[in-house]
Specification:
Elements (H helix, E strand, L loop, with lengths): L3 H7 L8 H10 L3 H5 L3 E5 L13 E3 L3 E4 L7 E4 L2 E5 L2 E2 L3 E2 L7 E7 L4 E7 L3 E9 L6 E10 L5 E6 L2 E2 L5 E13 L2 E13 L8 E10 L4 E4 L4 E12 L3 E2 L3 H23 L1 H4 L3 H19 L3 E4 L10 H12 L19 H12 L23 H17 L3 H5 L2 H12 L2 E4 L2 E4 L10 E7 L5 E8 L5 E9 L5 E4 L7 E2 L5 E4 L1 E4 L5 E4 L2 H11 L3 E4 L5 H9 L8 H27 L13
Length: 596
């Protein structure tokens, strides 16, 4: 399959696109390269286009989560995942009055944001949504409506809907109206309600408080004008409490959410920035993006395989994003007593948890676990997948890293993919050599507090895999040895050090890394291997299958079928000529140069 840019340049089509399709193409063009590199996922709302991946668009930060759809309900943490829906639909949308339209979403994995686009007759709408990483009680929505005609338009909005049982709603006026972008907010809606976390214990309820700015349901668009709406929403909830404690808990939550919203609006206002609210909003959004960039500093990449049903970067990145979206980033969050985040003691505990990963990851590499790479086409499937990952990591020795939040979880996931394990003063890689028939890159594995290790596995031209190890940064000397540790320990630096992949009998790790040189010298005497040989080369048909999607080499199967067909036809024609030459009667022979 050709990349989109090549299809655009070299493949022509007689098909004329309608206005809505052209509008949508313009909206999606900035994300095509990210989509092709698996750093984003473009998904048209039904029907999907050919080649699109059906992954649920989702935003979350481990405290609140939301599927990005006009009628989606907010979800809060329950168990190992964000799988407890509350009957509150927070999404602000443009009212659809029928007629032709196009809709698509783009999930940007690297920024933790989802973009939603709608194209209507005469105007289009761009939405950006994210659950803020440094302020976990905040769901931010940004809408931009653009009029493409020389006519005034009145646009009806669908505002957030509250269906919480036994809920109450009241409005309060701001002492000082706040201008954010093109709108001035002077009132807040305060919603209080409850949700029952478990039918087995109906006496326990979760108290919920939601605060949102009051927004008019109609927006007027000038001729060829643009309207931008910045719409924050604060959500806080309690642990399950008895009904006797419910009123006091709700009162405390309401007071805190109102204060949080008031503080946020002042932070985003035009007065706060001095240069206008747009600068404040961009800075606030960048704080969120910076946290996601820090999380993705650790990670994993794999060479793309064209083999049928193979696991590639698109599903791996989508799965890691889904898991991270349901885990909080405690060390980056602002101080919040209600949410229990940001305190110095908590940051100290997280730092300790990140440096102590003993026993993680204690099983075979998760690339082979099909149950951990399931479909995510619905929210229930996504939540189930996240629960499976968290359970697996927790039970395979990574509980300390999970306690550290998102930074620890992405470390644990990366360790599990490569079957890396911290064990008694060293880090070892336990992948079986037979699985090393694709290129892998593990970046910034955290070894202690101030050392990061990069490990790359490459299949060379002779179909044998080699291991390259380099330090991203370090505070002391580190050493490595290959399977069996027969050779002298190699001092690691920021330049790559290459190690062969060795197969031992009995089977042991293929790589060891430690800061203790004596410990490494003693490993050989502790693992008791009978035989150490260089791992054999992978079979050519297996490498060809991954590289080309078939076992016939670099050219497509159709080419070889065509060549065989031409050869067969040529030989049939040749046989026909020979038979005709020797079997026809002599009186039928013609001579070109006979005179009349």
């Amino acid at each position: 399959m050709l990349p989109p840019i090549f299809r655009y340049l070299f493949l022509s089509t007689n098909e004329e696109k309608d206005v809505h399709s052209m509008c949508m193409d313009d909206r999606l063009t900035p994300y095509i390269l990210q989509n092709y590199e698996f750093d984003a996922n473009i998904r048209h709302v039904a029907p999907l286009l050919p080649g699109e991946r059906d992954y649920t668009p989702y935003v979350g930060n481990g405290y609140i989560g939301l599927e990005v759809a006009h009628d989606a309900a907010l979800n809060i943490k329950h168990g190992r995942a964000m799988q407890l829906p509350i009957r509150f639909q927070p999404v602000v949308s443009v009212l659809q009055n029928g007629g032709a339209e196009k809709e698509a979403t783009v999930v940007e994995y690297l920024t933790g944001m989802v973009h939603r686009f709608q194209c209507f007759s005469g105007y289009f709408v761009s939405y950006t949504m994210y659950a803020h990483r440094t302020q976990p009680n905040l769901l931010m929505q940004e809408l931009q409506i653009t009029n493409t005609r020389n006519l005034m338009e009145n646009i009806e909005l669908v505002l957030p809907r509250n269906r919480l049982p036994k809920s109450s709603t009241r409005s309060i006026s701001l002492s000082d109206p706040v201008q954010i972008g093109m709108f001035t907010y002077s009132e807040l809606d305060v919603i209080a309600g409850t949700v029952q976390p478990s039918s087995e214990d109906p006496g326990k309820l979760i108290a919920i408080s939601i605060v949102k700015p009051k927004l008019e349901p109609t927006v007027q668009l000038r001729k060829r004008g643009t309207v931008r709406i910045i719409y924050p929403l604060i959500v806080e909830y309690s642990k399950p409490v008895a009904e006797a404690q419910l009123k006091s808990t709700l009162d405390n939550l309401e007071q805190h959410t109102i204060q949080a919203m008031t503080k946020l609006l002042q932070k985003l206002s035009a007065k706060a920035s001095g240069t206008g609210s747009l600068n404040s909003i961009n800075t606030f959004r960048q704080e969120h993006i910076n946290v996601w960039a820090d999380l993705w500093a650790t990670g994993f990449s794999i060479s793309t395989s064209k083999a049928e049903n193979s696991l590639n970067g698109d599903r791996i990145n989508a799965t890691m994003y889904a898991v991270l979206s349901q885990v909080r980033s405690f060390e980056f969050e602002e101080v919040n007593t209600v949410l229990g985040s940001g305190s110095p003691s908590m940051r100290e505990d997280i730092a300790k948890a990140l440096t102590y990963a003993e026993g993680c990851y204690d099983s075979y590499h998760t690339l082979q676990a099909e149950n951990l790479w399931r479909d995510m086409s619905t929210l229930n499937q996504l939540n189930s997948l996240v629960s499976s990952w968290m359970l697996t990591l927790e039970k395979q020795g990574c509980h300390n890293l999970i306690r550290a939040g998102a930074s620890g979880v992405i470390q644990a996931m990366t360790l599990s993919i490569g079957s890396f394990r911290f064990s008694n003063q060293h880090l070892e890689c336990n992948m079986h050599p037979k699985f090393l028939h694709r290129d892998f890159h593990f970046r910034r594995l955290n070894y202690g507090n101030k050392t990061h290790v990069n490990v790359t596995i490459i299949v060379k031209d002779d179909n044998k895999a080699v291991i390259n190890v380099a330090l991203d940064r370090s505070d002391r000397s580190y050493y490595a040895c290959d399977g069996g540790c027969l050779d002298e320990p190699v001092l690691l630096t920021q330049s790559r050090r290459e190690f062969p992949v060795k197969l031992t009998e009995p089977l042991t790790a293929i790589l060891y890394i430690t800061e203790d040189k004596q410990h490494m010298e003693e490993i050989h005497h502790a693992i008791h291997v009978k035989e150490v040989v260089e791992a054999p080369a992978h079979e050519q048909h297996l490498i060809a299958l991954h590289k080309h999607g078939h076992q016939l080499g670099g050219l497509p199967a159709l080419f070889w079928v065509s060549v065989c067909a031409i050869i067969i036809v040529f030989h049939i024609f040749l046989c026909k000529l020979i038979i005709k030459e020797y079997c026809e009667p002599s009186d039928k022979l013609r001579y070109r140069y006979n005179k009349p």
